[in-house]
Design goal:
Elements (H helix, E strand, L loop, with lengths): L3 E6 L15 E4 L9 E9 L10 E4 L9 E3 L9 E10 L4 E6 L2 E5 L2 H7 L11 E8 L5 E9 L2 E6 L5 E8 L9 E10 L9 E10 L9 E3 L5 E4 L1
Parallel strand pairs: 1-15
Antiparallel strand pairs: 1-16, 2-12, 3-4, 3-14, 4-5, 6-7, 6-13, 7-8, 9-12, 9-14, 10-11, 10-13
């Protein structure tokens, strides 16, 4: 896997402020454990953008395809480009995960117990990485994120070519996730979407990654495609 320093697309008019070099490292195409060691520990999923039934918001300990998990229904608007502000939080004081989007809140209590139930070895004291994943696999559809902020660090926007699935691993010495974290941003959707509930999907995941990390600059462009510096 080649290391990429991402010019993460801001997807808004104007030039975004660059993240300080000491803040975070964003690795395009990497995910938690892609180096060989890692565990996904907390995650939220937004899916089923064609409103095909079932629940559209999952929250809990990955894999979110298996119980225990919290879930709720959302009716997406996708006939025109529509934005949805969201949050994803680990509330350490109350040992729970919280997700808000589309005017509703989803909570997954007893996070530590669920880690054990799903056979996880790592826990809150090991959180050192965040994974952003976007599946945009319905031809002609739009699925992307803007204004993503993790614990006060502006990460910018994330988009992938259609149709494809993209991963970004966010890590670095300034990421203190062990005493709780809050991720905020805006999800943008526009159809058409297929009836396959997870053909297009967004997964946001916190966890532990075993690789060492050294900080590198993250810069931004203001136009609508990703650009990269190869190392």
């Amino acid at each position: 896997m080649r290391r990429l320093t991402a010019f993460v697309c801001a997807l808004v008019v104007g030039v975004a402020t660059a993240v300080p070099a000491s803040a975070v490292e964003i690795l395009l195409g990497d995910y938690i454990g892609s180096s060989g060691t890692g565990e996904s520990l907390a995650g939220v999923r937004f899916r089923s953008f064609a409103n095909t039934g079932g629940n559209e918001n999952y929250l809990g300990v990955p894999s979110l395809g298996t119980l225990p998990r919290a879930e709720r229904g959302i009716t997406w608007t996708t006939n025109i480009l529509t934005s949805y502000d969201f949050t994803f939080q680990y509330d350490q004081a109350n040992d729970k995960l919280v997700s808000t989007i589309a005017g509703g809140t989803l909570e997954s209590p007893n996070w530590s117990a669920d880690l054990i139930t799903k056979g996880k070895i790592k826990g809150a004291s090991d959180l050192n990485a965040f994974q952003i994943s976007i599946g945009n696999r319905d031809t002609g559809a739009d699925v992307y994120l803007t204004d993503v902020v993790l614990d006060g660090i502006a990460l910018g926007g994330f988009s992938t070519l259609n149709p494809s699935y993209g991963n970004w691993l966010v890590t670095g010495p300034d990421m203190n996730l062990t005493d709780g974290f809050t991720l905020t941003g805006t999800l943008w959707l526009r159809g058409p979407f297929s009836t396959s509930q997870e053909n297009s999907v967004v997964n946001l995941t916190a966890g532990w990654d075993g690789r060492g990390s050294s900080p590198v600059p993250v810069e931004y462009s203001s136009w609508g495609q990703l650009k990269f510096l190869y190392r």
